[in-house]
Write a structure and sequence with these properties.
Heat Shock Protein 90, 3 domains, Helix Hairpins, single chain, 440 residues, alpha+beta, five-stranded antiparallel sheet, Beta-Lactamase, 56% helix, EC 2.7.13.3, 11 helices, HATPase_C_sf
Length: 440
C-alpha cells in the first residue's frame, strides 16, 4: 500500500470517528437538555392546571383535551384508580405502583422517565398531590430529542464528505513533504543525512549493514587475492620441476630430490585447499550441530595424533586438567584444538614444550594451549587471526602452513560462543586461551 493512501485513510478514519463521537455526544446533550426543559414545563403547566381546575372544577380537564394540548393529563385517586385520562386504556389500569405516583404520595411530588405501555412512547411524567389527597399527573413525549438528532444527521454527512475531501488533499501534500527528504537521502552515507529523528535507528542500522557489506566485500577480495597467490606459488614450483623432468635435463642423482620437492609442494597445496574448504564451511555455518563433547578427552586424542610430529620436532607435549563436557560440534572443536597444538609445535624451539590445560573456572569453561616458542610481538596479537597472516615472513618460509589455522580457530570459537585471549611476548612463548568467560 502506498504511503499516501495509508496516511489519507488514517486521516479520514480519524475525522469520521471524531464526527461520530461528536454526533453522539451532541445527541446525548440535546436529549438531556430537552428532558430538563420538558420537566420544567410540566411542573409549570401542572401548577397552572391545578389552579385552573380548583377554580373551574374538573370540567376544565375536558376543555384541555378539547384544544388537543400535547400535554397528557391524568387524575388519580388515593387508591391508584384513574379518575380521568383522555386515553381510555389508562382508565382500566391501577396507577398506584407508578414511581412518580408513589413519590407524590410520600413527598408531595414525583418525577419519572419511562416508556408508556399505553402510548408506546418515551414519556416524562410529573405528579403532584392535591389538597384532597388525589394525584394530578401531567406527561409529555420526549421523542423531540431524537427527531432533532435525525435532523442534524444530514448536515453531519455533508461535513464528513467535505472533511474527507480536505483530508485527501492534505494527505497528498503532507506525504510529498514527508517523502521528499527520504527520496533525497544519501543511502551510501546514511549518518550524513539531516532527517527525521525517528529514523535515526533505521539509518544507524543501514550504516552498520553497509559497513558490514563493505568489510565482507573487502575480506572476499583479499581472500581471493591471497588464495590465488598461495595456490600459484606451489603450482608454479610443481609445474617448473615437472617441466624440467619432462625435458629430461635432470640428472639421475637429482631425480629423488626433485620428486621430494614436488611431493612437498603438492602436500602444501592439498593442505591449503583443505583449510580453505574448512574456512568456507565455517563462514557459511550459522548454527552448529551440538552434541555432548568431553574437551579433555578430545584434547587427549589431538595430542596422541600429533605426538609423531612433536617427536620429529623434538618438542614435548603435555595435557593437564579435568574432564569437562560442553555442547558443541565435535569436528569443529577438534580442528580448533589441533590447529592450536600444531602451531605450538611448528613455531617452537628444539627441546621446547606445548602444554594443554582443560578445565572449569569460576567464569566458565577454559582451554589453554601454551608453548615455549618464538612468541608474538604485542602489536600483532590481533592480526594473527587474519587470514593468511604470518608473523615472521622469513621464518614462515621454513615452517609449513597456510596461515589459515588461527582464522579457523576464531570462527569456530564464535560458533561455540567462546572468546579468545592471547598472552605472548616475543622470544618467550605464547599462550592462547579459549573460554566462555571471554565471550562478549
Amino acid at each position: 500500500m502506498k504511503l499516501q493512501k495509508k496516511i489519507g485513510r488514517s486521516m479520514l478514519l480519524m475525522i469520521i470517528l471524531t464526527l461520530v463521537v461528536s454526533y453522539l455526544a451532541t445527541t446525548i446533550i440535546v436529549y438531556r437538555q430537552t428532558i430538563d426543559i420538558v420537566e420544567n414545563e410540566l411542573e409549570q403547566e401542572a401548577d397552572y392546571m391545578i389552579a385552573a381546575m380548583e377554580m373551574a372544577g374538573e370540567d376544565y380537564l375536558a376543555q384541555i383535551d378539547a384544544v388537543r394540548r400535547p400535554t397528557r393529563v391524568t387524575l388519580i385517586d388515593e387508591n391508584g384508580t384513574v379518575l380521568y385520562d383522555y386515553n381510555e386504556a389508562a382508565l382500566q389500569e391501577n396507577h398506584k405502583s407508578r414511581p412518580e405516583v408513589i413519590s407524590a404520595m410520600k413527598t408531595g411530588e414525583g418525577r419519572d422517565i419511562r416508556r408508556s405501555s399505553t402510548l408506546n412512547k418515551d414519556m416524562v411524567y410529573y405528579a403532584k398531590e392535591l389538597k384532597d389527597g388525589r394525584i394530578f399527573r401531567v406527561s409529555k413525549s420526549v421523542d423531540t430529542a431524537f427527531i432533532l438528532s435525525l435532523r442534524v444527521l444530514p448536515y453531519i454527512g455533508i461535513i464528513v464528505l467535505i472533511m474527507a475531501l480536505i483530508a485527501w488533499r492534505l494527505s497528498k501534500r503532507q506525504v510529498a513533504k514527508i517523502i521528499e527528504p527520504i527520496n533525497k537521502m544519501d543511502v551510501e552515507n546514511p549518518l550524513h543525512n539531516e532527517i527525521y529523528e525517528e529514523l535515526t535507528p533505521l539509518l544507524v542500522n543501514m550504516d552498520e549493514q553497509i559497513r558490514e557489506k563493505e568489510l565482507v566485500a573487502k575480506m572476499r577480495r583479499e581472500f581471493t587475492a591471497n588464495v590465488s597467490h598461495e595456490l600459484k606459488t606451489p603450482l608454479t614450483s610443481i609445474s617448473g620441476y615437472a617441466e624440467i623432468m619432462k625435458d629430461g635435463i635432470v640428472r639421475p642423482e637429482d631425480m629423488q630430490n626433485f620428486s621430494e620437492r614436488i611431493y612437498k609442494e603438492a602436500s602444501s597445496l592439498i593442505s591449503l585447499i583443505d583449510d580453505v574448504i574448512k574456512l568456507s564451511r565455517l563462514d557459511e555455518e550459522r548454527v552448529v550441530k551440538t552434541e555432548p563433547v568431553d574437551l579433555f578427552q578430545l584434547s587427549h586424542g589431538v595430542i596422541t595424533r600429533l605426538t609423531p610430529l612433536a617427536k620429529k620436532s623434538k618438542v614435548r607435549l603435555e595435557l593437564t586438567g579435568e574432564p569437562v563436557e560442553i555442547m558443541g560440534d565435535y569436528r569443529i572443536l577438534d580442528e580448533m584444538i589441533t590447529n592450536l597444538v600444531e602451531n605450538g609445535i611448528k613455531y617452537n624451539r628444539e627441546g621446547g614444550s606445548v602444554a594443554v590445560w582443560v578445565g572449569k573456572t569460576l567464569q566458565g569453561v577454559r582451554i589453554s594451549v601454551s608453548d615455549t616458542g618464538i612468541g608474538i610481538p604485542k602489536d600483532q596479537h590481533e592480526r594473527i587471526f587474519e587470514r593468511f597472516y604470518r608473523v615472521d615472513k622469513s621464518h614462515s618460509k621454513e615452517v609449513p602452513g597456510t596461515g589459515l589455522g588461527l582464522s579457523i580457530v576464531k570462527h569456530g570459537a564464535a560458533l561455540h560462543k567462546m572468546g579468545i585471549f592471547v598472552e605472548s611476548e616475543e622470544g618467550k612463548g605464547t599462550t592462547i586461551i579459549l573460554g566462555t568467560e571471554y565471550f562478549k
